[in-house]
Design a protein that fits this description.
The complex is a heterodimer of chains A (about 210) and B (about 80). Chain A contains five helices and eight strands, in the order βαβαββαββααββ. By secondary structure, chain A is α/β, with parallel strands linked by helices. With about 80 residues, chain B is an alpha+beta fold. The longest helix of chain B is centred in the middle third of the chain and has 12 residues. Chain B is globular and about 35 Å long. The chains are: A alpha/beta (about 210), B alpha+beta (about 80). Chains A and B meet through helix 1, strand 5, strand 6 and strand 8 of A and helix 1, strand 4 and strand 5 of B.
């Protein structure tokens, strides 16, 4: 049973983006017992984040997201935590070397694409997720496959708008996929996308 | 009649969750959708297309035939975080 799996305490995850998805992913991975977390985000909390970002509140407005989450984890988790108040760039992409898995929780295509390239270069698994309205998707991108390209080559940029429960649900599925990948039990999700539609209350797994 | 559902950015772009269409192949369906929403066919071709949950890459792509009652999904990934 995965929730009794001791593997997690030996694993390191890099969470890129500590906003909507990232906030829940950090909470869930840390509480599931992951050994080490590296948090990366160059953004600070703003009022517009309060509708969906876990630690966006009146006290944290203006504070750096990665740093706020790292501080919270000291109270809730024994995980070893490093944080960087930075966006992912070529200057810090080497952080991927230190990790077993990378979680894509960002909100723009160009960073996602860069992350995918850097993970493939280093042979690291990427678990990518995104949300729009009441929907979203999550998928495991093994470095030897082209799942990311097959999905995101079809991406159309639209203005982002979503709701709290969609973010939390998609992030939870992303966390579940990441934990399965870290424990080596994610083979059945290879080349597949998990589609979430809370307008219809549907979760579907499709082959890419 | 076939049943079409839009997912992800496709739903946001067209502001519609689903529709019905009277057609017998994917190519014709794309033309119907293009006309319905006032977009070019090449814009609709950007989406991932599934027929009864099978990617058309594994069928006959745009030449895939459709039967009455088929369920088509048009998907463009969400990109918000």
């Amino acid at each position: 049973m995965i929730y009794k799996n001791p593997e997690l305490k030996n694993k390191t995850a890099l969470v890129v983006g500590c906003g909507g998805l990232g906030g829940y992913v950090i909470e869930e991975l840390s509480r599931a017992g992951i050994g080490k977390l590296i948090l990366l985000d160059g953004d600070s909390f703003s009022q517009s984040n309060m509708n969906r970002q876990l630690l966006a509140d009146f006290d944290t407005l203006g504070k750096m997201k990665a740093e706020v989450y790292a501080k919270r984890l000291k109270k809730t988790s024994v995980a070893n935590v490093k944080f960087f108040n930075q966006f992912l760039t070529k200057d810090n992409a080497n952080l991927i070397e230190e990790t077993d898995i990378v979680l894509d929780c960002v909100d723009n295509l160009s960073t996602r694409e860069f992350m995918s390239i850097e993970c493939k270069k280093r042979g690291k698994i990427l678990v990518s997720a995104a949300v729009e309205g009441e929907q979203g998707q999550a998928l495991i991108c093994f470095p030897e496959e082209d799942s990311f390209e097959r999905l995101f080559s079809k991406a159309v940029e639209t203005p982002h708008d979503t709701i709290s429960y969609a973010v939390a649900t998609v992030a939870s599925i992303q966390s579940a996929l990441a934990i399965k990948a870290m424990c080596g039990i994610a083979e059945e999700f290879r080349n597949k996308i998990v589609l979430i539609d809370l307008e219809s209350m549907m979760v579907k797994i499709l082959e890419l | 009649m076939v049943y079409v559902k839009f997912f992800g950015s496709a739903r946001v772009k067209f502001e519609k969750k689903e529709m019905e269409a009277d057609c017998s192949d994917i190519k014709t369906l794309l033309q119907i959708i293009s006309k319905e929403f006032g977009v070019e066919v090449k814009d609709v071709k950007q989406f991932l297309v599934y027929v009864n949950e099978v990617n058309i890459n594994k069928l006959k792509m745009w030449r895939t035939k459709l039967s009455d009652g088929d369920k088509i999904m048009l998907l463009s990934p969400a990109s918000g975080g």
